[in-house]
Design a protein that fits this description.
By secondary structure, this protein is an alpha/beta fold. It is built from 11 helices and 12 strands. α8 links the parallel β8 and β9.
């Protein structure tokens, strides 16, 4: 999966966010600022973390110019001082703006909301991967903020993390409900393998070692061990290896930053964690103005 920033998705989100926040312009700026007032502004990190989403900043200014032309966003000079996907310290300057005050202030909230969210996601991904160690890849899930999936999964990649499938279209993932409707995990797996196009991944979720054993002769991509304990994962690895199965194993279900190391030591090659996106704490950033 490419590490390129998803510009098209970003523009779509930015347009929606600016329309939501700015409408046809900031009445406070209009009524309180002197005409043609200019300022310098700095985005500063208020805590240590990983920064992600810096390519959003010029896009916010470009889209603001289209939405509110009289704000003067095209006249704002932007300087990026941080490295995308890099670690930042408390008090570090992330980016600098200089130009019409009205434009800087109208771009502020959308810029910070998105940058804080993506940076929090990247920071969380790094912490989980560091806790798991190098032998196990930590994956995200589809438990993303609606509309922000491409951006959140990008933030995980740019921080050195790993993506699970992007959606329902790019991998086959047989979960409990699919198996129940299809007559069991083996029946569902056989149907998927027979009907897939090309080398599309086939991943199957199991809830017991007995279900895993029923799949050991199949050329699956991965078997997802749902809500297994570390001890059960270790037994699953031993079973897979004894049967010389070709698929990898993924642990999932309630795994936290405090417990992930134990799960990784049990031998699964992958661990998927919904908290990488659904329970993220935004990185604390602020924009400070001074007269130009």
């Amino acid at each position: 999966m490419s590490d390129a920033f998803p510009i098209h998705d970003a523009r779509t989100i930015i347009r929606l966010a600016l329309a939501e926040d700015c409408g046809n312009g900031d009445v406070t700026c209009r009524l309180t600022l002197p005409p043609h007032h200019t300022s310098r502004g700095r985005i500063v990190s208020k805590e240590e973390g990983v920064i992600a989403g810096l390519p959003l900043l010029p896009l916010v200014l470009e889209e603001l110019e289209q939405l509110v032309p009289d704000a003067g966003a095209s006249k704002v000079a932007l300087t990026i001082d941080a490295v995308e996907g890099g670690h930042v310290q408390r008090g570090q300057v992330i980016a600098r703006f200089e130009g019409p005050t009205s434009a800087i202030l109208q771009a502020e909230r959308v810029s910070l909301n998105l940058l804080q969210r993506l940076s929090g996601t990247a920071t969380t991904a790094v912490r989980y991967q560091e806790a798991a160690g190098r032998s196990c890849k930590v994956l995200d899930t589809r438990k993303t903020t609606p509309g922000l999936r491409q951006l959140e999964k990008y933030a995980i990649r740019v921080a050195g993390g790993h993506n699970h499938r992007m959606g329902l279209w790019d991998a086959i993932l047989i979960k409990e409900n699919h198996a129940r409707a299809a007559g069991g995990v083996r029946a569902a797996s056989l149907s998927a393998l027979a009907g897939r196009t090309g080398k599309m991944p086939v991943i199957v979720e199991v809830e017991t070692l007995e279900q895993l054993e029923s799949l050991c002769d199949l050329p699956l991509t991965r078997v997802l061990l749902d809500n297994f304990s570390p001890e059960e994962i270790h037994r699953a690895v031993e079973l897979r290896n004894a049967r010389q199965s070709t698929f990898s194993l993924e642990a999932s279900g309630g795994i936290t930053l405090a417990t992930i190391a134990e799960y990784a030591k049990a031998g699964a090659e992958y661990i998927s964690v919904g908290a990488l996106t659904h329970s993220v704490k935004a990185l604390d950033l602020s924009l400070l103005l001074e007269d130009a």
